[in-house]
Write a sequence for this structure.
């Protein structure tokens, strides 16, 4: 039997001696005192585990001594059992009221006495365990908060590398979004325009944050290298599927803003309906999820199909996670999609919508406990999107020409793609990647990307797929064009595109000759007017824009071969020439597709 | 005729072992003075002190298995508490007589 240290306080020495002997006989250690003052002193000195306290004692009585001892013990649990010959219910209740934990009526029953001592000892043990665990939890919590701070710092570095602060974006995201699983990413495309991604990971806390890291990494990395959003999404889906446990995924809305096309392409999986608000503030279009969230389907089942909508300058796209719709008020009611739509319709002007939503939602939530996970982003189609300059912090690595390495200077490569490849594969990032090995070309990556992307898509769409650019003249035709493109590409059986790149140069300057040949029928061209006319034939092919970048651009053969020569540094184009092209093709017009 | 509950008394002896005789001596020493105090408190009409003293006397007597003595003490404690003064003097005298018998029996045991 374990020996407990028991303090016995009783002024009646015979009673005390007998009780002391009984308790000692049961294997315990006993400290005897004969009044309340001695009891308090002995408690301080000996730190007993249990106190047996007579109620009536001269000097300091049992109840007062109990109060003092409980005070000294502070949060430690020291059971105090009152010894009393009183037996009426009120007297016994009074004992407990004054802070005692139990009572023992005289004459003592030895078996009950020992049972009580054991029982209270178990309770003290339990209490000690509780305190210990409480302290452990407090320590663990402190540790966790520290880890979360680090995780948040890392997350912020990864997730905020983009251009969320661009002037065509407004957003609201909890500073602790990392722990509610909401993610907002935005990056400028090398060719102009922007990719925006809103994600809402299942769950909360670190598990929700973990998936955001590779997601942001892939999003920024691939966008900077010129990959299309479909490829980015495919890669993110693949990555999340492979790293997240079953049941963890990311509801997402991904947006590809193409200012030159004045269109937006949207991929939505598992997020609530979002709205496209026209610049006039009158027309609202509802965009709905058509896919499963990212990280659910394996690569072969994943559908990267995007919906394309015309989006003119000043049109606004509103995206949110379910946090805003599921925000609750005091009464536990949800804000809901209807109220959200109502708020947008009732705004005085499109300019106010974002603020109005924030105000209405905050008023709705009121004093009720903030879940703090209302994530909201407004994306505006704006002229500034033509700007391909990168924000500070973004992509700075890919732009730093490595002064120590000249890179490959004189080389030539040919890349021949057959129909089966053309059906699904976008070679532009790969081509861009090869060009980026030349330090001098790295500095003009954005422009190169534009040239490559335009010429390749001309060859594929007009050449191999036989699509007429005139179709894109009207809004309906525009949709039809992309529908046909999709249809013909997916069923393509014959045809090819051959890309040839040749570079010559030295440390200071160089020339890249880019030749793209397709299996199409070509078209009637006149290289002499290529540089001057803003004729539909050419503007439909984005030629004026390319002209401003290339030193020379000409069609060959039956019009199925195009050759572009790009000289770097690009400033070496004479001021005259530059002024001419700029005059002839003001940027807004040049970008009209 | 014994004034002690013999079965309980023999249990107590077993429990206390070598502390048994010192316990009896302690009881006699405490009780001798308490018995005298009772008369003094009665004369001074200090019924609260009387009650406290007879309460302790009762407890101690119960512990050394003097059942009758303990019961008599209980009655005096009750009377003092309710300040029923008539008959209190006689009851204390009777308590003294009973105590002397118990004391004699205990002394005999100590000397064994």
């Amino acid at each position: 039997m374990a020996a407990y240290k028991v303090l016995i306080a009783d002024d009646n020495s015979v009673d005390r001696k007998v009780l002391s002997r009984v308790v000692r006989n049961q294997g315990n250690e006993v400290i005897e005192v004969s009044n309340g003052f001695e009891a308090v002193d002995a408690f301080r000195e000996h730190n007993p585990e249990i106190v047996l306290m007579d109620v009536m004692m001269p000097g300091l009585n049992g109840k007062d001594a109990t109060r003092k001892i409980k005070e000294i013990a502070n949060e430690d649990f020291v059971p105090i059992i009152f010894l009393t010959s009183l037996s009426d219910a009120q007297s016994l209740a009074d004992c407990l009221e004054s802070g005692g934990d139990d009572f023992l009526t005289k004459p003592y029953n030895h078996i009950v006495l020992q049972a009580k001592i054991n029982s209270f000892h178990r309770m003290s043990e339990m209490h000690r365990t509780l305190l210990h665990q409480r302290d452990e939890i407090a320590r663990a919590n402190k540790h966790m908060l520290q880890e979360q701070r680090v995780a948040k710092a890392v997350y912020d570095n990864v997730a905020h590398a983009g251009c969320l602060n661009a002037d065509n974006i407004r957003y609201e995201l909890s500073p602790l979004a990392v722990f509610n699983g909401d993610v907002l990413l935005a990056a400028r495309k090398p060719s102009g325009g922007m990719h925006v991604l809103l994600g809402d990971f299942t769950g909360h806390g670190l598990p929700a944050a973990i998936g955001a890291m590779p997601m942001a990494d892939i999003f920024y990395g691939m966008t900077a290298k010129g990959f299309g959003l479909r490829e980015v999404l495919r890669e993110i889906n693949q990555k999340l599927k492979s790293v997240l446990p079953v049941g963890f995924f990311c509801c997402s809305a991904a947006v590809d803003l193409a200012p030159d096309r004045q269109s937006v392409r949207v991929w939505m999986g598992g997020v609530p309906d979002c709205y496209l608000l026209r610049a006039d503030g009158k027309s609202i279009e509802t965009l709905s999820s058509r896919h499963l969230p990212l990280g659910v389907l394996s690569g072969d089942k994943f559908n990267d199909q995007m919906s394309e909508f015309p989006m003119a300058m000043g049109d606004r796209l509103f995206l949110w996670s379910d946090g805003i719709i599921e925000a609750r008020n005091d009464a536990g009611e949800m804000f809901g999609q209807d109220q959200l739509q109502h708020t947008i319709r009732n705004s005085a002007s499109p300019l106010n919508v974002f603020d109005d939503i924030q105000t209405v939602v905050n008023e709705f939530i009121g004093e009720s406990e903030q879940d703090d996970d209302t994530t909201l982003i407004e994306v505006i189609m704006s002229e500034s999107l033509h700007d391909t300059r990168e924000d500070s912090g973004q992509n700075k690595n890919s732009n730093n020409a490595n002064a120590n390495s000249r890179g490959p200077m004189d080389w030539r490569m040919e890349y021949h793609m057959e129909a089966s490849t053309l059906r699904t594969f976008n070679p532009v990032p790969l081509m861009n990647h090869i060009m980026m090995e030349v330090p001098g070309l790295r500095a003009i990556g954005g422009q190169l990307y534009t040239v490559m992307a335009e010429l390749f898509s001309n060859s594929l769409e007009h050449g191999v797929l036989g699509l007429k650019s005139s179709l894109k003249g009207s809004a309906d035709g525009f949709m039809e064009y992309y529908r046909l493109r999709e249809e013909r590409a997916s069923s393509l059986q014959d045809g090819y595109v051959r890309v040839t790149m040749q570079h010559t140069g030295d440390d200071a300057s160089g020339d890249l000759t880019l030749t793209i040949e397709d299996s199409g029928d070509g078209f009637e061209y006149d290289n002499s007017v290529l540089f001057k006319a803003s004729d539909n034939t050419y503007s439909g092919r984005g030629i004026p824009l390319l002209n401003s970048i290339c030193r020379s651009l000409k069609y060959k053969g039956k019009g199925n071969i195009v050759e572009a020569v790009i000289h770097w540094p690009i400033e070496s184009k004479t001021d005259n020439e530059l002024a001419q092209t700029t005059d002839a093709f003001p940027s807004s017009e040049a970008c009209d597709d | 005729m014994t004034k002690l509950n013999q079965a309980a008394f023999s249990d107590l002896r077993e429990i206390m072992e070598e502390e048994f005789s010192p316990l009896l001596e302690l009881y006699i020493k405490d009780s001798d003075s308490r018995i005298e105090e009772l008369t003094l408190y009665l004369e001074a009409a200090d019924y609260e002190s009387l009650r406290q003293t007879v309460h302790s006397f009762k407890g101690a007597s119960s512990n050394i298995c003097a059942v009758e003595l303990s019961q008599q003490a209980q009655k005096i404690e009750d009377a003092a508490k309710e300040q029923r003064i008539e008959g209190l003097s006689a009851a204390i005298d009777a308590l003294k007589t009973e105590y002397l018998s118990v004391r004699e029996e205990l002394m005999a045991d100590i000397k064994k």
About this structure: Chain B has one domain: 6-110.
